[in-house]
Amino acid sequence: MSATTATATAGATAADVRIPLRGHLRHTGALIRRNLLWIKQDPESMFDALLMPVVFTLLFVYVFGGSIGQALGGGQDGYVQYVIPGMIAMMSMTLSQGVGTGFSQDFNSGVMDRFRSLPIGRGSVLFAKITVELVRMLFATTVLMIVAVLVGFDIHRWGGLFAAVGLSAVFASSIMWVFLTLGVILKNAQSVQAMGFLVLFPLQFGSSIFAPTKSMPGWLQAFTDYNPLSTLADASRGLMIGGPVAHDLWVTLGWSVAITAVMAPVAVHKFRTKT
Amino acid sequence: MTRIDNKPSGAGNAVTVRGLVKHYGETKALDGVDLDVREGTVMGVLGPNGAGKTTLVRILSTLLAPDAGQATVAGYDVVRQPRQLRRVIGLTGQYASVDEKLPGWENLYMIGRLLDLSRKDARARADELLERFSLTEAARRPASTYSGGMRRRLDLAASMIGRPAVLYLDEPTTGLDPRTRNEVWDEVKQMVGDGVTVLLTTQYMEEAEQLASELTVVDRGKVIANGGIEELKAKVGGRTLRVRPADPLELRPLASMLDDLGITGLASTTVDTETGSLVVPILSDEQLTAVVGAVTARGITIASITTELPSLDEVFLSLTGHRASAPQDARPTDAREEIAV
């Protein structure tokens, strides 16, 4: 390799190269393709995105719908209108865990070492994971809306529906940085899943997603009022059905920005320094 | 550290390592390692589990930052120029691997794209390397359905996509059966023939003997010897004389005769029943002459008589004071290991 000698002298003094934007896009694209191929090779990995919206909608509407609806004053039909916007929020949270478990698998299989020994930006690997997870989320939301219409949900505002889905996606991508971090620091996919459940379960149920917070004790209300999942669910409701939106919207966006600002650098740092 | 062959550093070196240190708390994974790999050669880094071999490879492939010391690969500094460095290396290892869920072709295409090949070039390179590593028929199958040997070949193909100047092979045949191991060795030999510089880590003497032209022996984070394989063997000194009488019943009488003879400085002889031969460690030409003389004087028929340089296992033993082979590893043992040293 006579070329090596030439680079040897040239390389000694030069600083490290920067990766151009086009390069980042190419790398992210190649990795998105990879993550999509995973789904193609293993269609079962889409079961959660397909079945969760169905199971949860039927469960909540038919098991709790009657009694909560009665308290709300609209019966089961009224509860459908209440719970569906919240379900969009819940679904996006649960699915965002997938980035963490997928990442953990990559580390344990050794393919991550291959990526990290290639001349690509570390962010490409993270962004590709997030992008594909958002695609999965969109798929789940579509399934959810089909089931929702079947159980009697009225979509009167298409614009509001898209805005609500968009807001959920924004918030979910901020939460994904948390799961990416967990995926990097925890030993295996099971731990990521267990930890994710511990974080998400109280957040999801200690919120206004499934029932109004008015009847909850004061200390719990204090928690639910600051829980971003409550504001996300309330904002979605406002957008899809009508009513005041601005406050919940801004609080949710504020949380998204804050979580991303803190967790994205942490995730990238943990990813870079993982040994 | 025993330096046998003092190679000039700098020009002509594909890899230069100086005083490399990596500690994990109290554990010194690397404790001041120096290493030079000349362009176009295969450097074997030999050592038992936990000697620091993988840590060295991980630092040289920018996966791990050193605590102290310097390392350059193809002229690029591992700490200051990681991106340029990554462009000129290939990594195949125990750990660095392929994506098992992806078909072989997709794995190679993806890496091509990550190395900034155009779509067309990435496709062509994937086809070419699958052909080259005899994986064309399995191209569309997920790598998880591949046999161990096929997976290593795909791994090798993946590391060759960017036509690297330096290739790291981190224990490339660990966990493979002997037949597959030979297959991988043949592939590596071909790649070396193409002119790539290789840094090979291994815990198997046989592997280093097969592939490497030079050797660095590491133990507990330190280089304990380096040089050409033959030089290392010669340095450790001593040859082994093997005498195989036509009649195996002659073995034991022959052994006790030699022990009783009292040749100056001759260590005790061993009987290797598996090969039906007598093994005599020889330290000098005088000893050799005396032993051969005594054996022929006895007037028995001799089927074969050979002298051997010590095996690398013996080299390691004499350098470190302990055996190199990891006890938990179920690897078919070399016949020579049966003999007490």
Automatic annotation (TrEMBL), chain A:
The keyword Transmembrane applies. Keywords: Antibiotic resistance, Cell membrane, Membrane, Transmembrane, Transmembrane helix, Transport. It is a multi-pass membrane protein. It is found in: Cell membrane; Membrane. InterPro entries: ABC2_TM, ABC2_TM_bact-type, ABC_2_transport, Nod_factor_ABC_transporter. GO terms for biological process: response to antibiotic. This is Transport permease protein. It comes from Streptomyces spiralis.
UniProtKB/TrEMBL annotation, chain B:
Its EC number is 7.6.2.2. PROSITE patterns: ABC_TRANSPORTER_1, ABC_TRANSPORTER_2. Keywords: Antibiotic resistance, ATP-binding, Cell membrane, Membrane, Nucleotide-binding, Translocase, Transport. SMART domains: AAA. Residues 15-245 form the ABC transporter domain. Gene3D superfamilies: P-loop containing nucleotide triphosphate hydrolases. It is a peripheral membrane protein. One of its GO terms (cellular component) is plasma membrane. The keyword Protein transport does not apply. It is found in: Cell membrane. GO terms for molecular function: ABC-type xenobiotic transporter activity; ATP binding; ATP hydrolysis activity. Its main location: membrane. SUPFAM superfamilies: P-loop containing nucleoside triphosphate hydrolases. GO terms for biological process: daunorubicin transport; doxorubicin transport; response to antibiotic. Belongs to the ABC transporter superfamily. Drug exporter-1 (DrugE1) (TC 3.A.1.105) family. This is ABC-type xenobiotic transporter. It comes from Streptomyces spiralis.
